[in-house]
Amino acid sequence: MQKTAETGPDDLIDVTHLLDDPYTGYAALRDAGPVHRVAGPDGQPAWLVTRYEDVRRGLSDPRLSLDKRHAAGGYRGFSLPPALDANLLNMDPPDHTRVRRLVAKAFTPARVEKLREPVRRLADGLLDAVAESGRTDLIARYAGPLPIIVICDLLGVPERDRPDFRSWTDTLITPDPARPEQTKQAVGAMLRYYTALIAAKRTAPGDDLLSDLIMVRDGGTDGRAGPDAETDGDRLTEDELTSLAFLLLFAGYENTVHLIGNSVLALLDHPERLTALRADPAELAKAVEEFARYDGPVSLAIRRFPVEDVEIGGVRVPRGETVLLSLASANRDPHRFPDAGTLDPGRDARGHLMFGHGIHHCLGAALARLETETALAALISRFPGLRLDVPRTGLRHRRTLRARGLISLPVAW
C-alpha cells in the first residue's frame, strides 16, 4: 500500500472513510506504511504521514514550508483575501518569528493563569442559565459560548457582535459544498468586520489585545515604536494585523469548542473515568492532556510544501507537493503510546502532538488547556447525573478531514 513519487492519479487512496471512522482508518494506514499518496481535502494529490515519529519530525522540519508560494501547481486549498491570509499559518521564518514574537507575550502560561478565575465564573454563569431545564445541547449552550466569550474579551470584540462572529466561523469550519456562496459571504463579512473594528479601535483604543497590536502596527500614539516593538523592524503590516486578528479569533474558538465537546463525550463514554475525576478534580489538568491525545480537535496539521525533495518514512516526496501530517493518527500510534486506543486520564500523555511541535506549536495552547480544564471541572461538579440525552449513534461530527468536533452534544442531568 505504500506509494512512491511516481504514483499516478488513479492510484490515489480515497480517505473519505476517515470522516466516519477516523481512528480505525488511521490504524490501517499506519500498519500499511508510514506515508501514503492520497486525495487530500481539496481533492488534489497529497502525501499523508501517519506515524508518530515521522509526524513529529515533519512538524519541525524547516524544509516543509507553510508558505503557499512553495506549492507546486494543483494545490487549491482554502482561499482567503490577502488581508486575512497573511497569518502565522502561512508563514515561515523570519516573518513567522517576527509576527509570533509580537503576540506571544499575551499567551504565556503566567498570563493565561490569571484568567482561571474569570473563566470559572463564566463557566458557572453558563451552567446557571441551563441548570433548571435539566437538559441542553452542550455545544450550543456551553462549549461553544465559553471560548467565544474568552477570546472576544481578550481581543476587545463587543458583545453585540459575537453571535455574528460565531455564525461566520461555523460556516468556514464546515462549508456546504452545495452552497459555496455561503463561504464567500462569510469571508467577506469577516473581512469587513475586522477592518471596521480595527478602525474603531484606532479612534478609541481599549484595554485589550487588539488595541495593543494596533499600537505595535502604528508605532505608538506619538510615532515611536509600540510597547512590544524592540526595533523598527518589529512591526506588523496592515494585512498582518487584520490576519492576526482573524486567526486568533478563529483558532481561539474552533479548537477549544471541539476539545471541550470531545472531552465530555469521552467521559460519558467511560463513566468510570468520569466518576474518578469527579472524586479527584486535581487530576483534571493531567486528564486534559489525555483527552487532547485520545480525541483531539485537530486531525491534520496545516498543509506543508517541501522546498526541496525530502524523504519521509523512507518515501521520497518531491519539492512543492502537498504534505499532510496526521496529528490524530500520530497520537494513536501504539509505538509511542501503548494501548493508544484506550482512554486513560492517568496516563502520561506528554509528547502528544495535538498542539503541534516546534516553532509552529499552537500559540493558544495554554489558553485552550485552561479553558477545557475549567469547563470540565465546573460541569462535572455541578451535574453529577450528567448523561447523554440521545442514543450514542445519534451523535454527528463535522464532516471535515481537517478537524474533529461534534455538531451537537445533547445531555441531561
Protein described:
This protein is mainly alpha-helical. The chain has one domain (13-223, 231-412): Orthogonal Bundle (Cytochrome p450). The chain has 16 helices and 10 strands. It has helices at 22-32, 52-59, 82-85, 95-104, 109-113, 116-131, 138-143, 145-155, 162-173, 180-203, 209-218, 238-269, 271-279, 284-295, 327-330, 365-382; strands spanning 35-39, 45-49, 64-65, 135-137, 305-306, 310-312, 315-317, 323-325, 387-388, 410-412. The strands form 4 sheets. Strands 1-2-8 form a 3-stranded mixed β-sheet, covered by helices on one side. The protein has a 3-stranded antiparallel β-sheet with strand order 4-10-9. α12 (238-269) packs parallel to α16 (365-382) and α14 crosses α16. The chain is globular, with a radius of gyration of 21 Å. 40% of the residues are buried. Mean pLDDT is 90; it is low at 1-9 and 221-232. It comes from Streptomyces paromomycinus. It holds the Pfam family p450. Keywords: Heme, Iron, Metal-binding, Monooxygenase, Oxidoreductase.
Gyration radius, rounded: 21 Å
Instruction: Note the main sheet.
Output: 3 strands, mixed
Which of globular, elongated, flat, extended, rod-shaped describes the shape?
Answer: globular
When the domains are counted, the total is 1
Residue share in helices?
Answer: 40-55%
Ends distance: 47 Å
Family: Belongs to the cytochrome P450 family.
Protein name: Cytochrome P450
InterPro entries: Cyt_P450 (IPR001128), Cyt_P450_B (IPR002397), Cyt_P450_CS (IPR017972), Cyt_P450_sf (IPR036396)
GO molecular function: heme binding; iron ion binding; monooxygenase activity; oxidoreductase activity, acting on paired donors, with incorporation or reduction of molecular oxygen
